[in-house]
Amino acid sequence: MATAPALKPSVPKQLPPPNSDFYQFAETLGADELAVLKKVRAFMETKVAPIIDKYWAEDAFPFEVLEYLIHDGANSWLLASCANRRCL
After folding, report:
1. With 70 as the cut, is the pLDDT of residue 31 above it?
2. Are 65 and 47 in contact (CB under 8 A)?
3. Would you state the torsion angle of the CA atoms of residues 43, 44, 49, 51, taken in this order, to the nearest 10 degrees?
4. Which of the chain's termini has less CB crowding within 10 Å, N or C?
5. How much is the pLDDT for 60?
6. Half-sphere exposure of residue 10, counting CA atoms within 13 Å on the CB side?
7. Tens digits of per-residue pLDDT, 40-83?
8. For the chain, what is the largest distance between any 2 Cα atoms, rounded to a whole number of angstroms?
9. Which DSSP string do the residues of 7-52 spell out, in sequence order?
């Protein structure tokens, strides 16, 4: 009876970066809007992503993120993104 050949240990495959623009909305944005999108993504990656798991697990809201937006003036890019659109 033949035996199966031994498998060589392999290096895990590198996963592709996640596609956060599933519907490809970024393709419809102008240069100014793309700049706002980059700022929002950078904010989410640097300020929100490191802390959000804790709040999710505790079923709580990350008020420290709101404080950052209010006190550091970062909300200006959020408001700028609504300047030419009806956001409310």
Report:
1. yes
2. yes
3. 60
4. N
5. 95
6. 5
7. 888 888 989 999 999 999 999 998 888 777 766 555 655 555 55
8. 74
9. PPP-PPPPPPPP-S-TT-GGGG--HHHHHHHHHHHHHIIIIIHHHH
- With tokens 């300047």, the residue in question is 83
Q: Of the candidates 59, 57, 79, 82, which has an alpha carbon nearest to the alpha carbon of residue 70?
A: 79
Structure tokens at 17: 């970066």
Place of tokens 């793309």: 34
State which amino acid sits at residue 19. Answer: N
Return the number of other C-beta atoms located less than 10 Å from residue 59's C-beta. Answer: 6
| Other residues' Cβ atoms within 10 Å of the Cβ of residue 68 | 16
- From residue 25, how far is each of 17, 70, 73 by CA, in Å? 17, 27, 26
Q: How far apart are CA 57 and CA 23, in angstroms?
A: 29
Cβ atoms within 10 Å of 33's Cβ, excluding its own: 17
